[in-house]
Amino acid sequence: MHRFREVILVLLIPLLLVSFVLFVMPSERAPNDSVLSTNRKLLANYVLRADLSSNRYVVIFDAGSSGSRVHGFRFDQNLDLVYVGKEIQLFEQVWPGLSSYADNPKEAADSLVPLLEDAEEFVPKDMHQVTPVKVGATAGLRLLEGDASDRILQAVRDLLETSNFMTNDDWVTVLDGSQEGSYLWMAINYLLTNLGKDYSETVGVVDLGGGSVQMAYAISEADAANAPELPEGEDPYVKELSIKGTKYYLYVHSYLNYGLSAARAQILGVAKDVENPCILAGYNGVYTYGGIDYKVSAPSSGSSMDKCREQILIALKGSNPTCPYKNCTFGGVWNGGGGDGQENLYVGSYFYDRAGQVGFINESDRVAASRPIDFQVAAERACQTTLEDAKSIYPGVDAADLPYLCMDLVYEHTLLVDGFGLQPLKDITLVKQIEYQGYLVEAAWPLGSAIEAMSLDNGIKPVSSLGNRIEAVSQAAI
Ligand SMILES: *[C@@H]1O[C@H](CO)[C@@H](O)[C@H](O)[C@H]1NC(C)=O
Ligand SMILES: *[C@@H]1O[C@H](CO)[C@@H](O)[C@H](O)[C@H]1NC(C)=O
Ligand SMILES: *[C@@H]1O[C@H](CO)[C@@H](O)[C@H](O)[C@H]1NC(C)=O
């Protein structure tokens, strides 16, 4: 393929020069043949692409369970983000999410129209044709039954076809957990300006969502070579990435059903008892997850951190308590071998949220130093509280989450220490947003997806020298 490309280049350069001469000649003297019109298209593309050296835009839709969001970014030729007016990104959202229109794919797609219009305004008109637009759907669509999610995605593809943006059927998909994990790793390391540096200078990430929890960190080439093979069809443990001229071997794993909402269901399912030692005294109700109802109440003696932890340890072991590798996290999953890329861990989503809500970090700090033991200390206090008292002690916690506060905090501590094997006193960083050029940017997967779109060998890679520009044209031609 590479060879082939060089041959095409050699052929194309003189062709381009000739057609450029023809292009600028008065039109009545231009020969009338189809080759010329093809070359004109190429040339128009080339002129557009030459512009790209200073301006490249990308639009990412994040179709989440509660709402849909659009992110627009503008990159310069060094893959640095560039301000558009006062903003460093376009960010708009609508509610509800695509999955709320399960029976009406057209209506689902139409819910994105206002966001698409925002993106069309954000990206200058003459750049639309060279601006990729991608859509990643997460938890909500994953859970829909039958072909509902396929039909919604197809309606979204049809919608994007009506815009002038660059699009492709493969760019409108349901993301799996490990894609989310690797995009988040890219986004956070990008914002910390680590990309392009040696893997040992990157940070690892842990992301606790509702349905799943992801861990991703860069490992050495030698460790990557020793990664265990997984059966065909399963996501491999290690992904290779090339960003800013540097190759990374990324260990990434998504633990389905160990996100915070899913874990509650697992923990409630451990003891078939209705009374659960993780539930705050005074609560009596029903917890619903994945279409299943769990009757829930607190023991008469109230919640207990130690007893709750015992149940959580059982839930963590799951159905696969044995480790077929040298080192595992939990559930028979390889731990990646550790190393420098995991030394600094950025931990986000529900870890950050609960820490802020119970007050051991200050929510006005979008990045905060912490340790796993902080979750235990907070759990100890929460587990001794009744539901009634908790309302006034923890005003930041949603009423629907309050009965589960002891459970959530014990789970978060147990997941970090017993699940991922972190030392209780290890320094970790809780993260919500990261400051980049004086602007707070969400530590979330869409930025990683944008960086990938800008880095991949798909005809829109960095266009910095004349040779590269022509290569971009030749790829567009193929
Ligand atoms: C070019 O050739 C085609 C068919 O040979 C003809 O239909 C068309 O009108 C020509 N165009 C010009 C601009 O002469
Ligand atoms: C892997 O296991 C060995 C032996 O059990 C232990 O010494 C080592 O620290 C572990 N490494 C990691 C990264 O967990
Ligand atoms: C949180 O930080 C802000 C800004 O630094 C400060 O004004 C506020 O008092 C802090 N809140 C707490 C509870 O420490």
Defining traits:
Nucleotidyltransferase, domain 5; 39% helix; disordered C terminus; five-stranded mixed sheet; seven-stranded mixed sheet; binds 2-acetamido-2-deoxy-beta-D-glucopyranose; 478 residues; 3 domains
The name of the CATH topology of the largest domain is Nucleotidyltransferase, domain 5
CATH classification class of the largest domain: Alpha Beta
Main beta sheet strand tally, sense and closure: 7 strands, mixed
Q: In what order do the strands lie side by side in the largest sheet?
A: 8-9-7-6-12-14-13
Helicity level, as a percent range? 25-40%
**In whole angstroms, how far apart are the ends?**
11 Å
What's the number of domains? 3
**CATH hierarchy: architecture of the largest domain:** 2-Layer Sandwich
Number of helices: 16
Describe this structure in words.
The protein is of the alpha/beta class. The protein folds into three domains: 1-35; 51-175 and 444-458, ATPase, nucleotide binding domain (Nucleotidyltransferase, domain 5), CATH 3.30.420; 177-443, Nucleotidyltransferase, domain 5 (2-Layer Sandwich). It is 39% helix and 19% strand. The protein has 16 helices and 16 strands. The chain has helices at residues 2-24, 34-51, 105-110, 113-122, 139-143, 148-161, 177-191, 221-225, 260-270, 305-317, 350-358, 372-383, 387-393, 405-419, 445-455, 466-477; strands spanning 56-63, 68-75, 90-94, 133-137, 172-174, 204-208, 212-219, 238-243, 246-256, 284-289, 292-297, 345-349, 367-370, 428-431, 433-436, 439-442. The strands form four sheets. Strands 8-9-7-6-12-14-13 form a seven-stranded mixed beta sheet. The protein has a five-stranded mixed beta sheet with strand order 3-2-1-4-5, sandwiched between helices. Strands 10-11 form a two-stranded antiparallel sheet. Helix 7 crosses helix 15 (445-455). The relative contact order is 0.13. Mean pLDDT is 87; it is low at 26-30 and 457-478. Bound molecules: 2-acetamido-2-deoxy-beta-D-glucopyranose (3 copies).
